[in-house]
Amino acid sequence: MSDTIFALATARGRAGVAVVRVSGPLALEAAAALGITGLRPRCASLRKLMAKGEVLDTGLVLYFEAGASFTGEPVVEFQIHGGEAVVSALLKFLESVPGLRLAQAGEFTRRALENGVLDLTQVEALADLIDAETEAQRRQAQRVLSGAIGVKAARWRADLIRAAALIEATIDFADEEVPVDVTSDVREIVLRLCEEFREEIDNSRGAERVRAGFEVAIIGAPNAGKSSLLNALVGREAAITSPVAGTTRDIIEVRMDLGGLPVTFVDTAGLRQTDDEVERIGVARARERAELADVRLLVLAPDETPDVQMNADIVVWSRADLSPRPGAVSSKTGEGLALLVETIRHRLEGQVSGSGVLIRERHRSALALARVSMESALELLYADYVPLELVAAELRSSTQAVDLLVGKIGVETLLDEIFSSFCIGK
Ligand SMILES: Nc1nc2c(c(=O)[nH]1)N(C=O)[C@@H](CNc1ccc(C(=O)N[C@@H](CCC(=O)O)C(=O)O)cc1)CN2
Ligand SMILES: Nc1nc2c(ncn2[C@@H]2O[C@H](COP(=O)(O)OP(=O)(O)OP(=O)(O)O)[C@@H](O)[C@H]2O)c(=O)[nH]1
Ligand SMILES: [Mg+2]
């Protein structure tokens, strides 16, 4: 019997309400120790929490029975006043209840995984949902948390098992006069799955970008107006600006929500040959970050022309207030900025192909693994003599790779790493 855990599920600190969660076989006993009995599943009731004959607090108490709770175990939730002393008093009391212990980071969610309430892709999506800073990230995490991948994986698994069953059946009939030829049916299944996996992997690359965020490097010659543009885009004096060429040396990064997309603007040193040792390091770093960025935004002074060497994705002239030209921006007056932001967003959205359901690198490798096995199964299926046992073996490895994707197998090594990134109480 797993022990019963408890923890504060809401953020620490003064708040209107705090939620303390208890999960495990002794959840109702924990409530009874506070003088609370007769809880009906899924009904919140206002109760006095009594400790040592005194009212510890008055709060809403919720009970979820095993098999119908977030963790799959009996869960009791105390929704109490969010004061530091109230929360500490309740946590201290729960610690004194025999059989209860403080939960480790992510342990509630780990139990939801162990009890099959969530699959591994949903666990990771839960972390992404909590980490989401922008609308695009929230939507993306929500899609996976709702089980989008798990549903697909279940269908893929069923198809692979059906294909393997057809092959195994043929092997069993092998000594019959006329073995049933199922290879065309199996080929059709495997071909379709290979195409689906390829599409899934491609789509998820874009989704991964939304999760991790995009980088837009602001590049150009010294004094082009790069830092002024950064400040105008982020709405604060994030970078020093001055009429002196070579003002910016270090990389300046500012993360912002650009219409729902997580974007980090990277201001850089003006690109030029220089004898100044420090500036030369700055220029080298500028080139490096420009190379790595998702979008290179080249800023030109009014009298400059774009240098193709800059490999820019978007070119914009500065100082529109001093020398108006179509598409130019002014960091002083804000002219042209809205159009520039829209251009940047449009460019970045183009990198999030399709309805990219987030599949993390680990998932992508599981899918890639499954695809490798299926492709070798296909090769065998197109051979003149079809070694059915080998085909069956390849299909079994594909099935295992799909199980890896949803965490049915091979997760032990991963779990500690995944749950250590969760907060306590989650
Ligand atoms: N107060 C509170 N709010 C919360 C959570 C929580 O644990 N407590 N959550 C924690 O992350 C999220 C909601 N996730 C939850 C998911 C499933 C169940 C649950 O009990 N499911 C049961 C019964 C559902 C029902 O009553 O219809 C089930 O799935 O069978 C509860 C919370 C966000 N908000
Ligand atoms: N009027 C006007 N002045 C601008 C505009 N953008 C930049 N400036 C001025 O041009 C000078 C250089 O601007 P910065 O933003 O420091 O240029 P930079 O490209 O970051 O320069 P380095 O860091 O040296 O590479 C500053 O004096 C700015 O105030 C603009 O849109 N309009
Ligand atoms: Mg600068």
UniProtKB/TrEMBL annotation:
UniProt-listed CDD domains: trmE, TrmE_N
Entry's transmembrane regions: none
Ligand binding (K(+)): 223, 242, 244, 247
First and last residue of the signal peptide: none
Residues the entry annotates as binding Mg(2+): 227, 248
Subcellular localization: Cytoplasm
Cofactor(s) the protein needs: K(+)
Binding site for GTP: 223-228, 242-248, 267-270
UniProt function note: Exhibits a very high intrinsic GTPase hydrolysis rate. Involved in the addition of a carboxymethylaminomethyl (cmnm) group at the wobble position (U34) of certain tRNAs, forming tRNA-cmnm(5)s(2)U34.
Subunit structure: Homodimer. Heterotetramer of two MnmE and two MnmG subunits.
Similarity comment: Belongs to the TRAFAC class TrmE-Era-EngA-EngB-Septin-like GTPase superfamily. TrmE GTPase family.
Protein name: tRNA modification GTPase MnmE
Source species of the chain: Pseudotabrizicola algicola
Originating gene: mnmE
